[in-house]
Amino acid sequence: MDSVLKEPLAEPSAADETTQRLEALEKAIDKEVDRISVRTDDASTEDEGDALLLPECEAWSCAQCGLINEVCPEICVLCEATRSPTRRRGSLAQLASSGAARSKVPPPMRHGPVRRTFLEVPQRSQGSAGDPSDSRVCCYRMADCISMDLALLVRGPAAGTQTEELLPKGFGCSAAIAWNVGYLRPRARSGYRHEAMKEKLLAPVIVSVIERSDHSQVFGRCRDFGFPSPLRLKQILVHCPRLFSLTPLPVIMTTAGVWDPKQHGIDMKRKSSFSLLDHIKRPMDGADENPDQKEKMEKLWKLMETYEPNDPESIQKSFARHLEYSLACTRFNFTMQDAYRAAGLVLRDRLLESLNDTNAYYRKMDVKRGYYLSAEYLIGRHMQNAIANLDLEQPFKEAFHALGMQLEDLFHEEVDPALGNGGLGRLAACFLDSMATLSLPCWGYGIRYSYGMFKQDIQNGRQVEMPDFWIGDGCPFEIPRPDITYPVRLYGEVQEGLNAQGEWCLNWVGGDIVQAMAYDNPIPGFDTYNTNNLRLWRACPTKEFDLDQYSAANFTDAVEARRKAEDLSAVLYPNDASYEGRELRLRQQYFFVSASLQDLLREFIKRPNYKWSELPEKVAVQMNDTHPTIAVAEFMRLLVDVMHVPWDEAWELTTKCLNYTNHTVMPEALEKWPVEMMTRMLPRHVQIIGELNLRWINGLVAKYGDGPIIAALSIFEEGDVKKIRMGNLAIMGSNKVNGVAALHTEIIKKETFPDFYKYCCDTGAPDKIVNMTNGVTPRRWVHCANPALSAIFTKYLGSHEWLTDMTKLKGMLKFKEDPKLHAEWMEMKKTAKKKLAGFLKETLDLEIDQDALIDIQIKRIHEYKRQFMNCLYVIHRYQQLKKMSPAEREKVQKRVVLIGGKAASAYVNAKLIIKLINNVGKVINNDPDTGKLLKLAFVPNYRVSAAEVLIPASDISEHISTAGTEASGTSNMKFVMNGGLIVGTMDGANIEIREECGEDTMFIFGCLEHEVAGIAAKAKEGHYPIDSRLQAVFQAIRNGEFSKGEPEAHAEFCSLVDKLCNTHGAGTWDGDRYLVVHDFPSFVDAQAKVDATYADKAKWCKLSIQAASSMAKFSTDRTISEYADVIWGVKPAPRPMEM
């Protein structure tokens, strides 16, 4: 961590020259402070004026802002108003409790009434020099109650001096000593009123103020303490450079929070420009010596010992309070959006109680923790899921119904957080839900994107990317944490030098430094008291504003640092078609990985008497795909360069703590970064990777000799552009590597990384690569998305235990032929289709027949997922209908085909497929002969909230990727859990779903994975026939039947068809890369089988019940349990009801 944790301040040298300089500094500071100090009112002599006086006075409540002032006798520390003599006086506890009495009734729901959140905090033992636990370097956190954190980094005069001796007892909440970084020394010539300050300080006290809110409001007056005001002290520090030139202390704190002897300037820093959370002194510390303080703190704690009550009346009062006092709304003027935000704050109050207590419990029990690193989280709307997991559905529903509002209306006001794109992000969100539900001490880490990927709009049938500014109205569920920030360095250079211990080391210096600021998102578990956290990082500039540039009329340059920093967390997956776009992606990935690793290491070293050998026993990190795999090099850098752990020990710790999930076999997803780019951006990491690779290769050569396996296993890929293979780095630096479906894991072993698997087997570690089949959370995808189905399961099974143990759904199988259940099941589908019809009418102005078969394919648009083939089938079905007589058409099953998903902004062919789907839909939907029998629509801006409407209404869903290309897929699981059947290939999780649910519940078609290579080989020889039905479809496209008179679109559609017709190029990028032509005939046959089966409603209902009741394996509860047992070694830590 490039922060104060990098290394403790070295002791002052005993050399005479240094001593003289320190004395000169002290005199200079004395002189400056004497010149501007404001004396206390009761100073009668020079000595008393120089003394640090803490007036002893009673607490009083400010008439202007209402703040309870405990120490300042005349001036409010918050608003600076003069104390009014008419205000009540009394002790702090009396004032805090003097308002209208409020009944704290025990909540009737799952949570118990008592919450003791202030658990005993283990005291740190005094460490050795150079140890971050050194008691001579510590941080004090004070005065949360007055909207600021005061953190002091105190440098003691000599080894062994207790830091507490350097501060006066009662050093209180309004002592805001400096704006940024200041040097201050109490006058030695004066007498001190407090015993603890009698000892003369031989070294300066370094003070850093960490703000909690707007810096223009939080600083109080310091006059009562004999100190200059913060603004005046700042002026001294800025305008008196001699104070620094006189003293070359070993190091000076700079704006980056990095100890760098080459930098001496003071810039205006962003709130907290580094984190000082590692050595926190609690309000209770020292209470044994001060019984009066202990009594006061216990009074304060007692006010916080109960949970917010959850009865409807209390919820209503809390809602009204937030509506007026948090959102500044009046009784007569607020909108539904305001109501949603106020309701969200009501819910957040309860989430925060649980989150704080859960974290305190984890620390008390000293549990091993899991950390999930993912570039995206498609978390969906918070409110409904949180209410369900907290078991507050009934009281919230009653509370808002009595106020004339429906919960469902409030749910619809929430904007989907644009933090993810597809299955990868949604899987991560499901994992977080299960981690909390299983009471596992695990957190998620990611990026707080301001604009997400993009908001998809359809204009003239084409995808248009629009900014998705999802935080425009604010998010009531996220908690900004300006007190938790970490510096992240980019670019710069690596220099050789000596560390504080005189040892040779490499130092990464210069370049740009941005601050990663934390935003916490509570993740509640279901049927548990645990609430975990998703911590997202926002990029902020280290230097807020360049006043010199602004004064010189260079207005753009004045805010350039802010713009450059905020680019890092602006957009998910920036367009990587350009060099600059690829560079931004790498910067994003390193930014969130570095901040996350600094944060988790900070948590580890807070433990008393920690040992680095214990790190694997307390930390497990999961890298979700290749995006966060730079973590291997960054973990090494932090351990070796910052924590000074020896190289070999650091590598052992890294390979025991990190784990890697591979999500795809697509070559473009296995990231490779040019060495030139990474050397310029992350020079120290390239050095570390080079050293790791050198040692790795030497070991391989000793084992295998200099053969082709060496090049395959190297981290570096040679070629015209030398690249770093992040997949290879991840496997080499991980304890475990996992695939996400049985077939996918076998492909990893045999095709994607065969040489790594051979090495693992040869070294006796064949179980390094394991399978963890994906899943989805039934809480969101059944209980919240489809409450009618959830009610059916609960009714027939007798309880809602199936929501946490889906094996209990097997009990539904004995009812699968029950006509009564069939009737309820069909009614459930009818309800879902009615909701879908309303959604399509509102979104697309499309009316559908609710008795039609609903056929849905919603996922990221990609050629391997074969939305193109689905569209070609719809054209074929349309052609067949056009050939029929009216009487024949009456016998055809009505069908509504819905396709949705986003195409990457630079993916030309995917965007052409969207255009083709929209054009075909316009022709078919407006044809009077077929419009009532077949409809095709593209659903724009696919997102979680849209999926929650689409999935419950489906009869069939399409999961038709070419065999061997889909790692797992999770949308297939969601559809089946909601009673939808699958048309699919033997690919990804389809195979395992078929095994669990039965062959008759799935309509399988297409080639198998092991047949793909043979098909491509035959095509190369000229044997790749095109079915006549597909040829007719191609001809219709070439004839312009779906071009709508657009020459450009016609040419583009023909190019798609021509590529498929290059029969010699099948299986390659020159032709039918994903075997659409080969699989089309069997796809048509599978669809005919769907129509025939659906015609028998009783049979269809039976299959639907059978499939939905057999999905226990695909709950993320099972998946996460396996991760915890096999990979992480993390045990459940259920928080008790009363702490």
UniProtKB/TrEMBL annotation:
Cofactor(s) this protein requires: pyridoxal 5'-phosphate
Tree of life domain: Eukaryota
RanBP2-type domain ranges (all copies): 60-79
Reactions catalysed, as given in the entry: [(1->4)-alpha-D-glucosyl](n) + phosphate = [(1->4)-alpha-D-glucosyl](n-1) + alpha-D-glucose 1-phosphate
GO molecular function: glycogen phosphorylase activity; pyridoxal phosphate binding; zinc ion binding
EC annotation from Swiss-Prot or TrEMBL: 2.4.1.1
InterPro entries documented for this protein: Glycg_phsphrylas, Glyco_trans_35, Pyridoxal_P_attach_site, Znf_RanBP2
UniProt region (Disordered), positions on chain: 1-20
A GO cellular-component term linked to this record: cytoplasm
Any one Gene Ontology BP term: glycogen catabolic process
Keywords assigned: Allosteric enzyme, Carbohydrate metabolism, Glycosyltransferase, Metal-binding, Pyridoxal phosphate, Transferase, Zinc, Zinc-finger
Record-stated family: Belongs to the glycogen phosphorylase family.
Classification via NCBIfam families: P_ylase (TIGR02093)
Function: Allosteric enzyme that catalyzes the rate-limiting step in glycogen catabolism, the phosphorolytic cleavage of glycogen to produce glucose-1-phosphate, and plays a central role in maintaining cellular and organismal glucose homeostasis.
Protein name per Swiss-Prot or TrEMBL: Alpha-1,4 glucan phosphorylase
Native source species: Symbiodinium microadriaticum (Dinoflagellate)
Gene assigned in the entry: glpV
